[in-house]
């Protein structure tokens, strides 16, 4: 038996740790550089027996157009999901992203905050591997002092980390490839069409939408912009030419994080003024979800009743997550930034080269450009590749009727998912409308929030969600192949004993009868 002695002060002096604090004793990764960190990571993975052998025996090897799992999205969610499946011994996987390499996700496109909201020490997509964390990546390059001084993670630095994550794990993201069609194939399989440098058709057993914040959603566009030119407004997720807003009057609808970040960009680009038009009577200041963040919430939320799940999420939606303090100060430090509360927009008119915003209180404001910081509306119909089948996806509004004081139309449009993140179908009396194949599509993105909690899009719980889904997929694939596994068990014939480990002997003969005196 190997006995590892506790580190005494004498032991610590012998290995050069005598005067180190507990924090410093764990800083062996500081300033070692990425090459050395990668070697340590590979050693860690080797100790974890990564990657395990594939245990799925199907036609994928003989039919290259069939894959066990197709992951749509090569950003944080997709990269982590690929790694989780690999750790589960599921190897016949493809991962695609419509963006060019290094531009996946929102981090260097429409995300415009300077830093992430999440605390820097959260492990995010590391999946329980310490040397795969952002902290290890940062400290290997910058050291402990720099790490201590770091407040929040810069947004573009997070994207650099994700690029490294992809590189060091050798994740084969196929960039410039989009999903154009999904339909049923034989025996509950899916037939999908991809578009990249050319057209391709695949047969897929399971499809994962790892598509982040706007996974099954569309930008929320209020009707009041329909009366003005498309050149005079933009949603916060659009590609906005902020330089063109120099010396112009800009109005931003909303005061959430995306609204505030876009207001800051406009101000820093030289806008003449930026006015937040806010429907609420006062600024949201408390992130209610922060007050209940725990492993218990991550693990227990999905098992709650519909009533409790709705209550938690509706309250979070109603109170609204505030913009981070640093992002808000980024705006308010400008003398030409304004916050107007209790201002619901009734209509916008365009004439004489300007926009006139009319509010429900009959007041008016003249401006030049509108930015909609109005977020996204969850809507399965946004997944055009599903065709009419998207309308058969079961939604929360189909299942649960909340009390009058908890009604929320946006929350009602979230999909009502199974425990394995898969879509459910609405009941249909027409057998010809069978869409049971939707259960082979898994929603590992923001759309899962109402059903399963914050485990498939936000940094704090994403590894738990990936572990959860990988386990569920492994179980499902095993059940589907149960006959194959049964045959494999019977056919297995590799002996562990060779026959020379023992010698058969006969029992001794009966003992002589004992004489009784």
Topology of helices and strands:
Layout: H1 9-14, H2 22-25, H3 33-47, E1 66-72, H4 76-87, E2 93-97, H5 134-149, H6 155-168, E3 173-175, E4 178-184, E5 190-195, E6 199-209, E7 217-219, E8 233-235, E9 249-253, H7 257-268, E10 273-277, H8 295-300, H9 306-319, H10 325-332, E11 337-340, E12 345-351, E13 354-359, E14 364-367, E15 369-372, E16 376-378, H11 396-399, H12 409-412, E17 441-443, H13 449-452, H14 462-480, H15 482-491
Parallel strand pairs: 1-2, 1-6, 2-3, 6-17, 8-15, 9-10, 9-15, 10-11
Antiparallel strand pairs: 4-5, 5-6, 7-16, 12-13, 13-14
Helix pairs in contact: 3-5, 4-14, 7-10
Walk me through this protein's architecture.
This protein is α/β, with parallel strands linked by helices and 517 residues long. The chain has 15 helices and 17 strands. Strands 1, 2, 3, 4, 5, 6 and 17 form a seven-stranded mixed beta sheet that branches. It has a five-stranded parallel beta sheet with strand order 8-15-9-10-11, with helices on one face. The protein is elongated, with a radius of gyration of 29 Å. The model is unreliable at 1-22 (pLDDT under 50).
